[in-house]
Amino acid sequence: MNTSDRINDELLVIRAQQGSEQAVTELVERWQHRLWRFAWRMTDDEQAAWDVLQEAWIVMSRTIGQLEVPAAFPAWAYRITSNKARDWIRRRQTRRRADHIYSSSRTEVDPDPVDRIDQFEDLTQALAALPGSDRAILSLYYEDGFSVSQIANILEVAAGTVKSRLHYARRRLRRSLSEVHDE
């Protein structure tokens, strides 16, 4: 993101804080895709990502006046989206546990094996095998280009924790890639 984009976002945030619905709409248009992609990486579910994002935008539009530093909007938006995605994941896990307890016959559906055509497909498959938290942190770092300190701010953890999570996520990705190659 270049300097003019950051300045434009800051101005939009200030206008939104002053009650401009148009400014909120413009922020949604500018950030929707990036935040949806992040939510999708965390949930591994396209529809859930849209639901998460809708909940996040509701929170953001109601609380944007509390954002003290307009330049912090990106980290703030990612943090809210991350929290909403974690809420969705917890609800899904609770539903799955309940289904497992109350279901008399539960069948697991294994995904069909994906033919390895090129490295991109291998990487996509390996990433899909990772936990949502690993996909999210790798996405923030490599796809969105956030620094370790920015990710720490987004996830509300120490920078050392981000470095550790990146290290272990990369390790699991390498292991997952080698498993994909072995198939």
UniProtKB/TrEMBL annotation:
One of its GO terms (molecular function) is sigma factor activity. It holds the Pfam family Sigma70_r2. Residues 27-93 form the RNA polymerase sigma-70 region domain. Residues 121-173 form the RNA polymerase sigma factor 70 region 4 type domain. InterPro entries: RNA_pol_sigma-70-like, RNA_pol_sigma-70_dom, RNA_pol_sigma70_r2, RNA_pol_sigma70_r4_t2, RNA_pol_sigma_r2, RNA_pol_sigma_r3/r4-like, WH-like_DNA-bd_sf. CDD domains: Sigma70_r4. It comes from the Bacteria. GO terms for biological process: DNA-templated transcription initiation. Keywords: DNA-binding, Sigma factor, Transcription, Transcription regulation. Belongs to the sigma-70 factor family. ECF subfamily. This is ECF RNA polymerase sigma factor SigW. The lineage of its organism: Bacteria, Pseudomonadati, Planctomycetota, Planctomycetia, Pirellulales.
